[in-house]
Specification:
By secondary structure, this protein is of the alpha+beta class. About 45% of the residues lie in helices and about 20% in strands. The protein has one domain: Winged helix-like DNA-binding domain superfamily/Winged helix DNA-binding domain (Arc Repressor Mutant, subunit A, Orthogonal Bundle). The strands form 3 sheets. It has a two-stranded antiparallel ribbon with strand order 1-2. α1 crosses α2, α1 packs across α4 and α2 crosses α3. The longest helix is centred in the C-terminal third of the chain and has 26 residues. It is elongated, with a radius of gyration of 17 Å.
Length: about 130
């Protein structure tokens, strides 16, 4: 059996794993780029999901151990690369501000999860192949 190696990158993404034999583990990470820029990856999807759950960029970032500035840079990048914004930020007032994931953001989450499922199927097929 040959060993399958993937290209190593500095990006932190959530790997999909498969263990074809007790000695080998095949892993793959998936991300989506547009024009050579990172659009979606595991961390960005987690940020979107946490914004939806917590209603706040700062709370979502804190829950991930991510600085607010980095979270905001990720959101700006995704919003710029997407057909329409994935996150809308409403400035604070007497009741405070909030952030919300848009319909386009939920489509991006769904698309990424679909890609991960397809990747898992591919890895599972390695065992039978």
């Amino acid at each position: 059996m040959g060993i399958i190696k993937s290209r190593k990158t500095n990006r932190k993404t959530s790997p999909v794993s498969h263990k074809p034999q007790s000695d080998y583990i095949v892993q793959a990470s998936i991300w989506v780029e547009k024009d050579g820029e990172l659009y979606l990856g595991g961390g960005r999807i987690m940020l979107l999901e946490n914004i939806d759950k917590l209603g706040s960029i700062s709370a979502a970032a804190r829950s991930m151990g991510l600085g607010y500035r980095n979270a905001w840079l990720w959101i700006n990048s995704m919003n710029r690369l997407a057909p329409s914004p994935l996150v809308l930020k409403v400035k604070g007032g007497p009741g405070g501000g909030y952030a919300q994931v848009t319909e386009e953001g939920f489509k991006a989450i769904s698309y990424y999860k679909h890609l991960k499922e397809k990747m898992a199927i591919c890895l599972d097929s390695l065992e039978s192949g």
